[in-house]
Specification:
The protein has 14 helices and 16 strands. The chain has about 400 residues and is an alpha/beta fold. It has a five-stranded parallel beta sheet, sandwiched between helices. It starts with a strand and ends in a 7-residue tail after the last strand.
């Protein structure tokens, strides 16, 4: 599908009011930042447009709708005013209606609508269903329990977080635009060859990046952006329904079955607890489901629990303790306690193993050919003699024992 305009920014006028007279409005600066970064991602000028709303009120104009068929994607800047404005939410509804007629709102598992959440909102019920389900980009952080917009005016940290979020959004929009362009070119062939396929073909493993609590969200966003940059499909791609266990558990289970690796970021907070009999948080539930899938299938797991992590919430502290001590909680997982760079190293090492499985060593091949079981006994060379009783016992049980190669490579 080819479009004259890449993006339409839908927003409430009050959200573009400058804090001081000498400043630009937040939307004006956001538009300029996104346009610059999206242009770089696309390798050409990004066509982004919005209604300047010069009259100072949110008046819906029919000429806006007339341009929606030529627009690839929508960015809605959510705020309390936006969601209470009939005209703003109508822009979202009308874009989705038009998108259905021009290739669909969801194209190969990617939505043509993006939510920039400028400030926390109580409900998104006034948005179309598809927009409520897509993941949003939170452009605020909490300081002393008070939400503050990511705005360079608040200082260097806010500027860095703002630029990172805009960069992530620009990347995701660029991937969607490219996908739409490729879809038009290959539409006839794809319909014939891939009529029953919902997911894009990829030779890279799919990764389940578990939902996490607010204190780990920044790390999750960094990982998600890096994994996508390297071409790895990352799930969940849409907001999960975590109000009730009966809805949440099957949804997570279904996603895990599509994945070869799950990554769990554990912090100080316990997080949301769906309604249901277990009364466990979504973090603990996802870990349990991934451990079960690891036993039943071919799922690799990584848990990140930064060294020294403790919680003043009893259920979370119990979960943290279980991850350190309980074999069931940590089943099949590499527990990483270093910093985020250590986590990245572990992730890429695991992905390499998944993509390039090691050839079995001769001892393993011999054991497999003989139909026997093999134990790999790890010890220091100076303790080799002390392992003799263990090795004899294993032999008596019909189990071969392989020791490390103490010399050579």
């Amino acid at each position: 599908m080819s479009f004259d305009k890449h993006l339409f920014i839908s927003y409430a006028h009050i959200d573009n009011e400058p804090v001081t007279p000498e400043q630009q409005g937040w939307i004006t600066r956001f538009h300029a930042s996104l346009e610059a970064l999206l242009s770089m991602r696309l390798g050409g000028h990004a066509e982004i447009w919005r209604d300047d709303k010069l009259k100072g009120n949110d008046v819906f104009a029919d000429e806006i709708v007339e341009q929606f068929p030529e627009t690839a994607a929508l960015v809605s800047v959510l705020s309390p005013r936006y969601l209470n404005s009939e005209w703003c939410t109508r822009e979202a509804v009308e874009f989705c209606n038009v998108a259905i007629q021009s290739g669909g709102v969801i194209v190969e598992n990617k939505a043509r609508v993006f939510k920039v959440i400028k400030t926390p909102v109580d409900s998104q019920e006034t948005l179309p269903d598809v927009m409520r389900d897509v993941l949003g980009y939170e452009f605020y952080i909490f300081e002393d329990e008070t939400p503050l917009e990511l705005d360079p005016a608040y200082g260097e940290k806010y500027a860095q977080d703002y630029n990172r979020k805009v960069g992530k959004l620009a990347w995701d929009v660029a991937q969607l635009v490219k996908q739409l362009q490729e879809s038009r070119t290959a539409e006839a062939e794809r319909e014939a060859a891939d009529h029953d396929r919902d997911e894009p073909v990829t030779d890279k493993p799919t990764i389940y990046l578990a939902e996490c609590t607010r204190d780990q969200k920044a790390a999750r966003e960094i990982l998600e952006a890096e994994l996508k940059l390297h071409g790895y499909p990352v799930l969940p791609a849409q907001r999960l329904h975590n109000d009730e266990e009966e809805d949440y558990l099957p949804e997570v289970e279904g996603l895990l079955k599509q994945c070869q690796l799950s990554i769990h970021l554990v912090g100080e907070r316990y997080g949301a607890v769906p309604g249901g009999p277990s009364q466990k948080s979504i973090g603990e539930l996802q870990n349990q489901l991934a451990a079960r899938q690891c036993k039943d299938g071919n799922l690799q797991r990584i848990i990140w629990l930064p060294d020294g992590t403790v919680s003043d919430q009893a259920p979370q502290q119990a979960f943290i303790k279980a991850l350190h001590e309980d074999a069931e909680a940590q089943f099949g997982a590499d527990l990483i306690t270093g910093d985020i760079e250590d986590l990245k190293t572990a992730i890429h090492a695991t992905l390499k193993k998944i993509q390039q499985p090691e050839t079995p060593k001769p001892a393993e091949q011999d054991a497999a050919a003989a139909g026997t079981k093999l134990v790999y006994l790890i010890c220091d060379e100076k303790d080799r003699k002390a392992t003799v009783p263990v090795r004899k016992f294993c032999k008596q049980q019909g189990v071969d024992v392989s020791l490390p190669a103490f010399e050579g490579d």
